[in-house]
Design brief:
alpha+beta, Double Stranded RNA Binding Domain, elongated, 2 domains, 33% strand
Length: 175
Amino acid sequence: MSSFTANKNSRRNSPKVEEPESEFVEKVVHINRSSKVVRGGRRFSFSSLVVTGDQKGQVGVGYGKANEVPEAIRKSSERARKNLEPIQLRGDTIPHEVIGEADGGRVLLRPASTGTGVIAGGGVRAVLESVGVKNVLSKSLGSNNHGAMVNATMDALRQLRSAETIRAMRATPEA
């Protein structure tokens, strides 16, 4: 029993391998395993959904499939980095209330005062934390499918406009 605790402590205190520090935060939202029955048994393949962001107003979503989990995650993170989009924020929250829809998923996002935190779960939380939102309220109004929730959150964030942008749009006369 003492060797177990000593081994556990030595792992805990062991020096961590330093990885090159990236400016992007990657969050694996979901990993799905699918199987195909072949003559020798079952053949498994994996798909992963990853959200990547710089926590300064840019976020991207990627989906990748492969025969091994690490390869699926690598593919989806590469796609997420290619699909980075700028998002309008106001400080550490969002400028206004918005509802996003994608497939069967509907997500309501509301700005919150400082100290509230990110009140969200699953894929919605991953997207909001990756984009850099610190205070927001959210509510899932539709499907709880991971892909639908992430895409609905992205749709909601794309709809955000700052007060200056709205003021400029109203000031320009329409043709």
